[in-house]
Amino acid sequence: MNIYKFILYKILGWKIIGDFNQDNLKKVVIIVAPHTSWSDFVIAILSRKVLGVMVNFVGKKELFVWPFGYYFKWVGGAPLDRTKNHNKVEAIASIFDSKKEFRLGMSPEGTRKKVDKWRTGFYYIALKAKVPIIPTSMDYKTKTITIGKPFDPSGDIETDLKILKKFFEGSVGKIKKYT
User: Fold this and answer.
1) Alpha carbon distance 140, 45 (integer Å)
2) Domain range for residue 34?
3) How many helices (H) and strands (E) does the chain have?
4) pLDDT tens-digit readout, 48-60
5) Measuring CA to CA, which residue among 170, 175, 167 is closest to residue 136?
6) Residue 125 region by backbone torsions, left for phi larger than 0, else alpha for psi between -120 and 50, else beta
7) Which of 85, 91, 112, 141 might form a disulfide with 172, Cβ 3.0–4.6 angstroms?
8) CB within 8 A of 173, min separation 6: which ones?
9) CA 117/CA 54 separation, integer angstroms
10) Nearest-CA neighbor of 120 among 84, 86, 165, 80?
């Protein structure tokens, strides 16, 4: 058993159901929810190591400064300037064209706080890049990471979001009041 499995499974008590390597997908948008705490990032990095699959992420540029900036880049992160008026969806979707393999992990909430509506950037990125979306829940109540089946966005965002949100029903975040 490698060190990452030991930490995630034995010390922290988590389990993983499913796999990101379904159908040998090299390009995919992975949405992870509920996102309520900074510790979600730690669990995500550990599970990525356990599964042996590189999952990249984008984060607000403020996260990529000293002392953590080098670490975040090393583990697959890319800074995003959310203050500029350029098309972030286009910019991120174009990364899929430039890479042979790119799995983008994102939080549909876009924040750790409770939200009434998901942000839709992940959806439009997947649609523009012509890649599937894999819903992935982190349930702190059962300490289970559940990786769903690949979902191809149809362009009917209302219907598709209802389907995707159903996957996360019952999942409890680390900070329950934000779930």
Assistant:
1) 16
2) 3-178
3) 6, 7
4) 999 988 899 887 7
5) 167
6) alpha
7) 141
8) 33, 34, 35, 36, 37, 40, 138, 140, 179
9) 28
10) 165
